Amino acid sequence: LLNWGAAPNTDISTVLQTALNVIGDVYIPAGSYFLNSTVTLNTGNRIRGAGKNVTRLLNCGSTNHTLLNIFVDDCVIQDLQLNGNCGIGFSCAGIHSTGAGTLIENVECVQFQTNIWLQGGYSKVDFCHLSTARTNGFLLVLNDSTSGSSGYAITDNRLDVGDGNGLLIFPASGRVSGNVFEGSSTSTGAQTGLIIANSSVQSQFALFVEGNHFEGVPNNIALGVGSGANAPKGPIVFTGNMFTYSPTVFGNCAQLVLIGNSFNTPCTVSNAVASLVNLGNNFSSFTNNAKSSYP
């Protein structure tokens, strides 16, 4: 990007937008750069840095805007840091994508109201570090409350919940695998690791939550919450996860499957769960109020 006139410690919004429009695949070398206005990716565009600890794209700290918008398919963002400088009164976002096939890989995203918001389906967030969501903010949001999407893969990320929340899922299918959800004993926010929310549409999507570690989060799971009239209908499968620090409560859903998980603190399945499959789990204590269960 330096060949296009960009320089560290300056606003590169216009230069980056021009380079994406012309060549589509843009490399940003090490350094700190400002994005004082939103940059929009085109179909198949790629933005890549020299590493998430050395290439930093920063909000100027005085405006509310999304840094990177994606309204088309098959875009890639790799090997850089996005920093919202998002203080009190700001609700900026790092990445917002409505396109399918978005890949976000080896990215650090910090200090946004919503760090990453994906709505397009068949998208992947991999080897990323998401942290310091504002109070009641979210590190990662999948889909919205009006339609369903499928094929998400959220794998091998670290989500430092901070004063906000970790991962919010509206009706969506896919895999949440190998992530660490980490909380803080000094948090002043609600802090929920994984929220699987109600929606305004009926959803039969299957969601697999596997091999994750919930560590130090005051609320590990919130299931079937929010203002939508429809709780998750498709099977929600938890397998091989570890839950520590705080009690885990599974709430409103039609089909809940728990296989081979480890609960180091009390686990409760509420009477809002219509059907439970419970196999090979290790519970410190377990209360089952599901309407029906197997075995």
Keywords:
about 300 residues, mainly beta, 21-stranded parallel β-sheet, 1 helix, single chain, 8-stranded parallel β-sheet
Alpha-beta classification:
mainly beta
- Low-pLDDT runs of 5+ residues are none
Based on CA atoms alone, the radius of gyration comes out at 20 Å
Q: How does the major sheet shape up? A: 21 strands, parallel
Gross geometry? elongated
Strand content bin = over 45%
Distance between the termini: 59 Å
Overall mean confidence score, pLDDT = 87
Number of strands: 32
Number of helices: 1
Task: Report helical residue fraction.
Answer: under 10%
Account of the 3D structure:
- The structure is a single chain.
- The chain is elongated.
- The chain is built from one helix and 32 strands.
- The protein is mainly beta.
- The strands form three sheets. It has a 21-stranded parallel sheet that branches. An eight-stranded parallel sheet has the order 3-6-8-10-13-16-19-22. A three-stranded parallel sheet has the order 25-28-31, with no helix packed on it.
- The protein has one helix at about 15-20; strands at about 25-30, 30-35, 40, 45-50, 55-60, 70, 75-85, 95, 105-110, 115-120, 125, 130, 140, 150-155, 160, 165-170, 170-175, 180, 190-195, 205-210, 215, 220-225, 235-240, 240-245, 250, 255-260, 260-265, 265-270, 275-280, 280-285, 285-290, 295.
Could you write a compact summary of the structure shown?
This protein is 3% helix and 47% strand. It is mostly beta strands and 295 residues long. The mean pLDDT is 87.
